[in-house]
C-alpha cells in the first residue's frame, strides 16, 4: 500500500539519480509556452531534460519495487498454501494416531478387565470389530491348515490295523465291486450290441438275396424277349430280301414290256414295212 501511495503521489517521495541525490520531491516536468520559444536558452532546456530523466528514473525504480513486492506476495501465497496442505496432512495424521491410540487403549482396558459389558462396548466400535473379525478368520484358517497337516501325517503313517487303513481297505473293496459291476454291464452291453449288429447284417443279406433272385428272373425274361425279337428280326429280314428280289424281277419284266410295247408301236405306225422316218413329207 505504501508503494502504491508513493507511486500515486510522487510529490511526497524522495528520489535518487545516478550522479546526485535530491531531497526535494520530484514533479512531472511540464513545458510551458515560454520554453518553446526561440529565445529560450539552451541551459534551461537541458535543465528541463535532466528533471525529466530524474522523474523517469524515479518512476522506473517505483515500478521495480512494485514488481518485487508482487513477486514476494506470490511467494508468500505459495508458502501459505504449502503450509495449509502440511497442516491438513498433520491434522489427518494426528486424527489417525488418536483413533489408533483410542483403539489400543480400549483393547488394553478390555484385556485388563474383560467384563461382558466392556466386551459389548468394544464390539460396537467398528475398528475393534474389524480387527477381531480378521483375527477370527486367521485363527480359522490356521485351524484348517493344522487339520490338513494332521490328516496328511496320518496318511503317511498308514498301517492295515489303523483306523485310516481299515477305512481305505473298505473303500478299495467297494471300488473293486463297483468296477466289476461296471465291467459286467459293459460286457453285456457289448454282447447285445454285437447280436443286434449280426441280426441287422442277416436281414441285409436276406434282402440282398431276394433282390438277386428278382434280378435273375428279370434277366431271364429279358433273354427270352431278346430271343423272340431276334427271331422276328430274322424273319423280317428274310421277307425284306424276298421283297427286294420280287421288286427286281418286276422291274426286269417291266423293262421287257416297255421294249415290247415300243416295238409293237413302231410296227403299227409303219405299214408295209416302211418306217415313219423313211416316208416323204
Automatic annotation (TrEMBL):
The keyword Coiled coil applies. One of its GO terms (biological process) is mRNA modification. It is found in: Nucleus. Residues 132-159 form a coiled coil. Residues 9-25 have a biased composition (Low complexity). Keywords: Coiled coil, mRNA processing, mRNA splicing, Nucleus. The keyword Coiled coil applies. GO terms for cellular component: nucleus. It holds the Pfam family Wtap. It comes from the Eukaryota. Residues 1-25 are annotated as: Disordered. InterPro entries: WTAP (IPR033757). Belongs to the fl(2)d family. This is Uncharacterized protein. It comes from Adineta ricciae.
Amino acid at each position: 500500500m505504501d508503494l502504491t501511495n508513493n507511486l500515486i503521489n510522487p510529490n511526497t517521495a524522495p528520489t535518487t539519480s545516478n550522479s546526485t541525490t535530491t531531497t526535494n520531491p520530484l514533479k512531472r516536468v511540464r513545458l510551458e509556452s515560454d520554453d518553446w520559444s526561440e529565445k529560450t536558452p539552451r541551459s534551461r532546456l537541458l535543465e528541463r531534460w535532466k528533471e525529466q530523466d530524474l522523474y523517469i528514473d524515479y518512476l522506473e525504480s517505483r515500478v521495480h519495487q512494485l514488481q518485487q513486492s508482487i513477486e514476494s506476495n506470490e511467494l508468500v501465497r505459495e508458502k501459505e498454501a504449502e503450509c495449509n496442505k502440511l497442516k491438513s496432512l498433520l491434522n489427518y495424521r494426528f486424527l489417525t494416531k488418536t483413533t489408533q491410540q483410542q483403539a489400543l487403549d480400549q483393547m488394553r482396558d478390555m484385556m485388563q478387565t474383560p467384563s461382558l459389558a466392556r466386551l459389548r462396548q468394544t464390539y460396537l466400535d467398528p475398528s475393534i470389530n474389524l480387527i477381531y473379525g480378521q483375527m477370527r478368520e486367521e485363527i480359522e484358517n490356521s485351524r484348517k491348515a493344522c487339520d490338513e497337516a494332521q490328516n496328511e501325517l496320518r496318511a503317511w503313517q498308514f498301517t492295515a490295523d489303523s483306523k485310516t487303513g481299515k477305512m481305505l481297505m473298505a473303500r478299495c473293496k467297494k471300488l473293486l465291486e463297483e468296477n466289476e459291476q461296471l465291467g459286467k454291464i459293459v460286457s453285456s452291453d457289448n454282447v447285445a450290441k454285437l447280436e443286434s449288429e449280426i441280426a441287422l447284417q442277416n436281414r441285409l443279406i436276406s434282402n440282398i438275396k431276394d433282390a438277386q433272385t428278382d434280378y435273375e428272373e428279370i434277366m431271364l425274361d429279358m433273354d427270352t424277349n431278346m430271343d423272340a425279337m431276334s427271331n422276328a428280326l430274322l424273319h423280317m429280314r428274310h421277307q425284306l430280301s424276298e421283297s427286294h428280289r420280287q421288286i427286281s424281277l418286276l422291274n426286269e419284266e417291266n423293262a421287257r414290256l416297255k421294249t415290247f410295247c415300243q416295238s409293237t408301236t413302231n410296227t403299227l405306225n409303219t405299214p408295209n414295212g416302211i418306217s415313219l422316218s423313211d416316208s416323204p413329207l
